[in-house]
Amino acid sequence: MSPRERFAALARRPDARIDLAEAALWIAAEACPGLTPGPWLERLRRLAEAAAPRLAGVASPREQALRLAGFLFAEQGFRGNAAEYDDPRNSYLHEVLERRTGIPITLALVLLEVGRRNGVAIEGIGFPGHFLVKVLGEDEEIVLDPFRGLLLSEQECAERLATALGSDARWERAWLRAATPREILVRMLQNLKRAHAARGELEAAIGCCDRVLLLLPDAPSELRDRAILWRELECFAPALADLERFAKLAPREAASREMRELLQELRQAAGRLH
What we know:
Structural class: alpha+beta
């Protein structure tokens, strides 16, 4: 089976049965021929094993979060890659493990895997702007910024929300809802899609759309994005097929002037090919 087929098999599973780390590694394998998850899953296991003495007997979620952050960032040297944020390698889990640098969501994945292997109740948060994680306790939950290895107060989370969405954004605890494995993989692929598109790697960006649609077959935004990418490659027939499906799934968005003009353009271009 190819990396795409392996990923598709995982995408068909219910959320509770999706192995997040394995799926992330199959995403990377599509860009890195010969890559297999096994050695990198073993590296994650060894990393979690090394963290075990720091977490043994620690029940407080705040202390667990502090020790996890201290282990990964201070001891192991993981860090956010601010200088090359849009480098696609930041979205490949094996590169993050090898280079010890990444973006919030891939660093969060390392935190999640190390924490869970040590019995820490830790979850990802699909927060606007930067992805976050939280460590759960009976009476509290501690939010951690995986890009900087910092604990965040509720006020700091509210301030980040306003920065990401504007000052009119209303703060609610619902913004800290746990992300499902499917949602995490979708966000990883959307980050990777933007990175490839910014570098002019349009076929690779289309591959990201393809895999999002394996996870969410009726995602209108991915059909729209893939149509635009196909159009840039002058592949008008698949662009038209995607945009027409987008129009059926999201008629209100498709009614905008921009989308109507694009649909007309693609129909004309596809018609000239027949």
